[in-house]
Structures
1.
Amino acid sequence: MRNTVILIKHQELINYIRNKVAKFLICRGDNITKTALEFWKAGKGREEITLKDLEKTLSLSVFNDQNGGFFHTSLIDKNLVDFFVPFLPVEEIHIVQCAMAEMKARNLRPNRDVANKVARDMIYFPKDERVFSSTGCKTVQHKLNFYR
């Protein structure tokens, strides 16, 4: 009888987790970039990309990624992930915003000219169009040191 109570309580816990806790999977990668580029080529902004535009592709991509931690996992196969949170590629305007935020974090007076120089000197892709930053905002704080 005691084991039955434990089993019931365990099942209640599982049901609670399934029903009350949203499971998120944060994603980045080629499929997101491909979708963002398709939107850009169609004249649409990255802000117009919805989760619906990415969700099926993300699910399959994560499930089939042999180098990822979710390769053929039942979390994906049994639809136990409630939300996929995509990290969209970063455009030049976002690099400017990162540089301004970094200056503020350093207790410096934010300078739009300096932020624009940092953004201008970043590497973007596709190479000829310079649409998205290759490194996102990761190298902004180091580049900012050259423009003080």
2.
Amino acid sequence: MVNSTFSLRDNEHFPSLRGITVDNMFDHNTLEYYSEQGHEGFLRPTKHWCLLTEIVEEREWIRPMYTVKDKAGGQFLVAFHHDYDGTPGFRVSETFGMPANRRLPESLASNAKPGNVMAFMYAQNHMFADGQQGIRVEDLDQVKVRVYSLL
């Protein structure tokens, strides 16, 4: 029988940034989260995890970017690196006027405000070229933004 109860304090399924794997680094920790599926050589998650963060601020740049904090209080960068095909329902950031292919869908952008929660399924710790650590988001389907606080 599967235990259907869970707790947001569970660090295995709701880790902080320090508790998740680093992308493009394959070590013992990575093997706890992924396994090779089939003969293609692709790694797939072997369990579910969700990084819950609170939005601290929207950051000005050529892509949608935010400073967020996790349940351990650590603040870090979230940068959206996705492509967009022009489907209605997307909007330009009112402040920064981003190119169309870098906009967030209205379902994310409308609630991506300081104090709200941004959740990332299967997030990986990423080291950006400028030395900042955080989350690089390529798959928008693995991100949800909700109007409530982590407190």
